Amino acid sequence: MADLKPLVHQDADKKDDATLRREAEAHFAKSPGVQIVGELLCKLRSRALPWWSPEELRVFWNATERMRWLRERADLREQITSSLTGLPPAAARKKTPEFQGGLLDSFLEDGDVTLRQFEDAYDPIDLVVYGPATAIWRKFRERFPWDQDSAQNQEIVAFLLRALLADKSTHRNVARRPVLTPWEVRTAIPSAAWHARIPLDIRIAVDEARLQREKSGEPFTTAHELAIATPEVIAASVPLRELTCLLDLAQAAMGCDGGMPQVVPAAPVVVDPMLRDPEDLLASISRRAINTTASPTRAKTTSTPPPAHKQRTHVSSGYIAMAKPEPAHAASPWSDDDDGDEEFAVVDRFREDEQTQPRAQASIR
Fold it and tell me: In whole angstroms, what separates CA 327 from the centre of its chain?
């Protein structure tokens, strides 16, 4: 399927207005995606939508930018400029897109032209033929309130679904290959969601129609199912947010490249200051595993003091003096750790004491 690249005329300065007009019509006729975006623009313009208002659209695409889209169509720029500013046609035609756009902006700023008049001066079909239809489509998806299942929003989505399934454009009666097939629409909606959302009477009607056609030996397809569960029924029953999967399919079929949603960076992880550094923790676990493998029968040392005969001693003035207790260590927040680094150091000191203590007792005797 053809993509949504703007039309560029070859040797436009050597062609008359009628030839350029025919080439524009041919471009529109061969691109179903351009037709879809054009029909959508017309639908949105016919509604008073706060998220798609003339004020918003002028911010997205101002007068100078739009005139640049129409650089090769002097006849269209002349008509727009003359109708809004009153500049004579011959004089308006000779001006550059930048001059014409600046003139329109000045009329808008002074209040001589309203934003509604400015928006209506541009034919939506011309905008999608010569402008960035992909950007317009993506802006629609970005601005549409998908979490608001109002009747007006459902109507817009139903209109769009029907246009994606249609084999003919609503403008200029141009035939086209459907952007989406009934099978793609039906299978894009999970079966669990379909049976939970679509009204029971509609599902009963689908089942009865299937049985009737099978009785007469005729196949029952998803096209027959969607003739009963129409786009209007789907949009009114399934939350609009859950129907964005259909627009993902349509976007790929129409050739809207670079349509991936923006990735929101994850919030930084806040580490609890009471927790040990991960590298220290891993090192402690590794040393414990090695020690356990080397001495599988040795029980894990706990915080219980060792027996008196194994406590550290030293000879002082002919008697055995108990060593001062080691300062207490803060308990580890890890339930399976007990501060393993110090634990192994204590075990090693006990082993040294066992080797040196007999010599100290012999010296006392």
Answer: 56
Rounded to whole angstroms, the Cα distance separating 281 from 341 reads 9
> Is residue 76 domain-shared with residue 161, that is, in the same domain?
yes
Tally of domains in the chain: 2
At 33, list the tokens: 């995606």
Rounded-to-integer distance, Cα 350 and Cα 362, Å: 19
- In this prediction, residue 315 carries a pLDDT of 44
Tokens representing residue 81 in the block: 């400029």
Whether 5 is in a domain gets the answer: no
Residue 157 has φ and ψ, to the nearest 5°, of -65, -40
Does an H or E element contain 322, and which?
A: strand 319-322
In a domain, 229, yes or no: yes
Across the range 304-309, mean pLDDT stands at 54
CA-atom Rg of the chain in angstroms: 39
CA 315 distance to own-chain centroid: 75
- The domain of 174 spans 12-254
**In this structure, what token pair is assigned to residue 201?**
């009477």
Q: Is residue 340 in some structural domain?
A: yes
Tell me the pTM.
0.69
Does 279 score more than 90 pLDDT? Answer: no
Selection from 37, 22, 26, 35 nearest residue 170 by Cα: 35
Task: For tokens 């050597």, name the residue.
Answer: 14
Residues 51 and 190 in one domain: yes
Which of 100, 117, 114, 129 minimizes the C-alpha distance to 41? 129
Answer yes or no: do 186 and 285 share one domain. no
Claim to verify: residue 88 and residue 231 sit in the same structural domain: yes
